[in-house]
Specification:
Layout lengths: L1 E2 L3 H11 L10 E12 L4 H4 L5 E13 L4 E10 L2 E14 L2 E9 L46 E13 L3 E10 L10 H4 L12 E10 L7 E14 L7 E13 L2 E13 L15 E4 L1
Antiparallel strand pairs: 1-2, 2-3, 3-4, 4-5, 5-6, 6-7, 7-8, 8-9, 9-10, 10-11, 11-12, 12-13
Length: 290
């Protein structure tokens, strides 16, 4: 994939999204980013069954501080999926160690969820485990897509907080309950981005993330380091008979000016053994990818 320079587009998006930023009321924050990329594969045989397109995308975010403890955030994304609501939530933050966010929330799964906005990372596409719809051999079968495409946005509530263990170790923790992923026989990613954003089976899903962060001295060769673990699971079909479970571990380490990132993710999804049309022989009543 190739991403074209986007500085001018980002500036244009900011100008369009914030026509009156200097006159904005106190406590209201506008931000946004934009980019254009071309996704294509030179090999003709692979390209014949793979997605190829020029893909512009724009992200616009509005934040409002209602009072010292309560804030409202709304974020919309315009991309190949059309207009998608990525985040509409109230955030209650009375203490650093106890906060509550509810609404249409960005589920904290994996380290990449912290920087999933295209304006905050420099690669042409997300890591393969979190990519959706643009894998070289993924367009013909949903079962060949990522483990959990990000951003994973869902309706629900998140309880989270931060605690310091001494002067250098910080612990971030979060537990959430959401509507959960949707589908019939395997997960349907587009259903997650289709209105209404409600649960299809009235059985909530849940998950958690725990992350440790080490803060080094400024200028140290062995810089900041992070270690995290994530889990999410629930039932995804209308009858609430089939389950999915996804888990991930991640680590980052800064060595001088070099930042190393590593992330592993896996998901096990129940399938219907009696269903027909599988492109392969179904040995187990589930599919696992990692």
């Amino acid at each position: 994939a190739r991403r074209f320079p986007r500085a001018a587009l980002a500036a244009l998006a900011a100008a369009l999204a914030v026509p009156g930023a200097s006159r904005a009321a106190e406590g209201v924050i506008y931000s946004g980013s934009a980019y254009v990329e071309y996704w294509g594969i030179p090999d003709r045989e692979v390209a014949a069954r793979s997605p190829q397109a020029v893909a512009p995308a724009t992200s616009i975010r509005i934040g409002l501080d209602i009072n010292d403890d309560l804030a409202f955030t709304a974020k919309a994304c315009i991309s190949c999926h059309g207009i998608d609501v990525e985040h509409v939530a109230l955030d209650y933050q009375p203490k650093s160690w106890f906060n509550v966010q509810f609404g249409r929330i960005a589920v904290p799964f994996g380290e990449f969820s912290n920087r999933v906005d295209p304006g905050s990372y420099k690669t042409a596409s997300p890591p393969l485990v979190y990519d959706m719809g643009r894998m070289a051999f993924g367009s013909r079968s949903a079962m060949n897509l990522g483990v959990l495409p990000l951003p994973y946005v869902d309706t629900g509530a998140l309880v989270y907080g931060v605690r310091w263990l001494g002067e250098r170790i910080q612990v971030w923790y979060g537990v959430y309950g959401v509507a959960g992923l949707r589908g019939s026989n395997d997960l349907d990613w587009m259903a997650m981005r289709s209105i209404p954003y409600n649960d299809n089976n009235r059985v909530p899903a849940g998950g958690a993330r725990l992350a440790l962060a080490y803060s080094s001295n400024p200028g140290a060769f062995f810089g900041d380091a992070n270690l995290g673990a994530s889990y999410t699971g629930g039932r995804y079909d209308r009858d609430a008979t089939r389950e999915y479970h996804a888990w991930a571990v991640d680590a980052t380490l800064r060595l001088g000016k070099l930042l190393l990132r590593g992330e592993y993710a896996a998901r096990r999804t129940d399938l219907d053994p009696a269903a027909t049309g599988y492109p392969y022989a179904l040995v187990d009543p589930f599919v696992q990818k990692e």
